[in-house]
């Protein structure tokens, strides 16, 4: 392999490792906050815990997708590997989409005005 390809491969690996670190770190921090909460058995604390884990997963998935795209498009761009990347990106995008709905409580294309009209709380009211 040429030195440039090796550098790009290393960069892609670092980005993927950052994604794993975000997921593991987000899970650890969110778990620590949950178990050190005075009333961690309350429903509200549990929902904050679930949302924290979902946010860490969303951000980590974004890093993992970026690393996969860099690695596949730049380094190994055979038809089979591009098709595999497409399937992986679709699965991860679907996971990120469903996690977004879980965390935010609405579809991504709906803004706070829609939620307010439907009787939901806005982001400012949730904090």
Report the sheet with the most strands, covering strand number, pairing sense and barrel closure: none
The whole-angstrom Rg is 19 Å
Oligomeric form of this entry? single chain
What distance separates the N and C termini?
A: 51 Å
Count the beta strands. 0
The secondary-structure class comes to mainly alpha
Helix content: over 70%
Average pLDDT reading: 80
Count, helices: 5
Net shape: elongated
Approximate strand percentage: under 5%
Helix and strand element order: HHHHH
- Write down the domain tally: 1
Q: Runs with pLDDT <50, length 5+? A: none
In short:
By secondary structure, the protein is mostly helical. The chain contains five helices and no strands.
Please, could you describe this protein's structure?
The chain crosses the membrane at residues 12-35, 56-76, 82-103. This is DUF1622 domain-containing protein. It comes from Billgrantia kenyensis. Keywords: Membrane, Transmembrane, Transmembrane helix. With 127 residues, the protein is mostly helical. The protein has one domain (3-126). Helix content is 80%, strand content 0%. It has helices at 3-35, 43-75, 79-104, 112-117, 123-126. The mean pLDDT is 80.
């Amino acid at each position: 392999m040429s030195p440039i390809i090796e550098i790009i491969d290393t960069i892609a690996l670092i980005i993927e490792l950052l994604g794993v670190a975000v997921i593991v770190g987000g899970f650890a921090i969110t778990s620590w906050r949950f178990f050190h909460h005075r009333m961690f058995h309350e429903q509200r604390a549990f929902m904050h815990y679930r949302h924290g884990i979902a946010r860490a997963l969303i951000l980590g998935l974004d890093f993992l997708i970026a690393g996969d795209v860099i690695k596949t498009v730049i380094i190994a761009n055979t038809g089979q590997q591009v098709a595999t990347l497409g399937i992986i990106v679709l699965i991860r995008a679907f996971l990120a989409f469903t996690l977004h709905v879980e965390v935010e409580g609405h579809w991504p294309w709906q803004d706070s005005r829609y939620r307010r009209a439907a009787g939901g709380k806005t982001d400012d009211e949730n904090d």
